[in-house]
Amino acid sequence: MHADISFLGLFLQASLLVKFVMLLLMAMSILSWAMIINRRKVLVSAQRASEAFEDKFWSGADLSRLYHESNARRDNLAGMEQVFYSGFKEFVRLQKQGRSQESLLEGTYRTMRVALSREVDRLETNLSMLATIGSISPYIGLFGTVWGIMNAFIALAEVKQATLSMVAPGIAEALIATALGLFAAIPAVIAYNRFGYQVERQENNLANFMDEFSAILNRQVAAGKP
């Protein structure tokens, strides 16, 4: 009677620990794909929103009007518009207090820096989990493989005449754990590197905008404009 060497057959024949390793790796793979899809949507949406606001900002629109438009939907702001809204709100507040030019601009810049950090934290959500899955999955799979091969050779030692057909299913089911580990790890690592690069680009864009916006406010203050 031949052993079932299909994936399901090998899974059912595996030891309890190897089954647990396989199920864990499949769960980690599903989790990583869910995070990949979610992060991609978030990053694409943030990039488009920032580009749309940047076009509006540099179109020559009045800053006060832009601020009131942003204030009307302040609970749904993100990216560059959130940095602008936070900075201009603090700028107006400090200006009403009669702060000096240096104190006014420093307080505004500090507030925008906080808004930028929060936006980066939002964009980086779950990226550490992707990195963790990408780094530990191969080792979990390797552990399952070592355990499975060890059991296969222990069972082999208990028979008088060993054949390849006797040891092959045990080794095959053990190697599946390594394959599942790589299946979970490779997409997670690729996505982590890709998303990390996209977050870094968006952070640089926000930092550049923050500097440019600060320069505009500085010119307005120097010119005595509200």
UniProtKB/TrEMBL annotation:
Matching InterPro entries: ExbB/TolQ_transport (IPR050790), MotA_ExbB_proton_chnl (IPR002898), Tol-Pal_TolQ (IPR014163)
Main location as per UniProt: membrane
The identity of this protein, by name, is: Tol-Pal system protein TolQ
Q: Which family does it belong to?
A: Belongs to the ExbB/TolQ family.
Q: How does it assemble?
A: The Tol-Pal system is composed of five core proteins: the inner membrane proteins TolA, TolQ and TolR, the periplasmic protein TolB and the outer membrane protein Pal. They form a network linking the inner and outer membranes and the peptidoglycan layer.
Keyword Transmembrane helix in annotation = yes
Kindly state which keywords UniProt assigns to this record, in alphabetical order: Cell cycle, Cell division, Cell inner membrane, Cell membrane, Membrane, Transmembrane, Transmembrane helix
Q: What is the organism field in this record?
A: Oceanisphaera pacifica
Q: How does it sit in the membrane?
A: Multi-pass membrane protein
Cell compartments where the protein resides: Cell inner membrane; Cell membrane
Q: Which residues form the MotA/TolQ/ExbB proton channel domain?
A: 80-206
